[in-house]
Amino acid sequence: MTRARRPPARRIGMALAGGGPLGAIYEIGALCALDEAIDGLDLADCDAYVGVSAGGFLAAGLANGISPRELCSAFIENEGEAQDLFDPSVLMRPALGEFAQRLAMLPALAGQAAWRLLVERRSLLAAAERLGRALPTGLFSNRMVDVQLRRLFSVAGRSNDFRELDRTLVLVATDLDSGRSAPFGRPGWDHVPISTAVQASSALPGLFPPVEIGGHFYVDGALKKTLHASVLLEEGLDLLICLNPLVPFDASRSPRHRVLSSGDEQIPRLVDGGLPVVLSQTFRTLIHSRLELGMKGYERSHPGTDILLFEPDQRDPEMFLANTFSYSQRRWLAEHAYQRTRELLRSRRSVLGAQLARHGLALNDAILDDRHRRLLRRPAHRCAPPLHTQAAMAAKRLEEVLNDLEQALQAA
User: Fold this and answer.
1) How far, in Å, are 290, 317, 362, 409 from residue 303 at the CA level?
2) Distance (Å, rounded) from C-alpha 289 to C-alpha 282?
3) What are the tens digits of pLDDT across the range 66-78?
4) C-alpha–C-alpha distance, residues 337 and 340, integer Å
5) Which residues contact 381 (CB under 8 A, 6 or more apart)?
6) Which pTM was predicted?
């Protein structure tokens, strides 16, 4: 079936937030669900893209005409043309160069620490502070991000040069020394290769070393903002589609999730999960509250642009307990994100349908209501338990209809 094209006068953009490997996996599943369920929308043919951190990897691919399904084949299933494959295991290689550089500094730093302690009679803490400079700035090397993306964008019809793209692409990093945003792809910033900009935008401090470009060092763009959508809104878009993969878990909104569980793991309360769970909730809450403030600001400053935000359900324990930096379950997580996004579209069908119609787009009800539709050709491990009974399926449909009605009443 040929999908209708949207009216050319309507300008559509995409803003993709970060979230580590988990964020990229969620966004791939969500992008595939959106791309196939909205008639007239081609996510690889939007007018403008902005990406931050892991979202920058996907934004760069979409801006180069790589479809969400092709991104899924390359990143999740590792299938397809050899030059299109991206091996996620390369991100787990130790930063040996960084380790060697810091180790070489250790003798001089140890001498300075001893001088402070024994001669200057400084405190032990002041002496130890000098030794802290020998600690690596990142555990893993992200150099292969640049290498693999250079190969990916060297295929005919693609480009590793912002200036050669026929659409706007902005990849945001943070200048480590000044704390200011670095919008690679904007005028004055577009001479940097796209692959290098992705590497810089996704250099999460502590995990990856800062990336040096032109004598400056850059780290993850999410340090400043979650989405950086304003760089696209200034171009006068009619519709901006935003994806944010990290949300805090909310056990208070549904009694059935009072016990946080994922697979074999059960956590009666978040505090029972220990430091990793507490830190995850804290980090997610901070970045999400910042996102909420940003979205309200965007609505006030650009009332002529429809802004649609898609993110995981805050009651979903599977997305919350998943290891943010693990690739071992990427097939299952991508399928989970795909199915949950389809549920979200069904639950907001009335309101979304009206918003999309203003831009010549429409939800494809036949695709959305196909309960057998899957993202992956091969079954993913640890899929959510199937709905075995007609009663359970009917209850699920009723919940989606009631959610849709609630959204429509709120909009009215």
Assistant:
1) 20, 34, 22, 21
2) 11
3) 999 999 988 888 7
4) 5
5) 329, 331, 332
6) 0.85
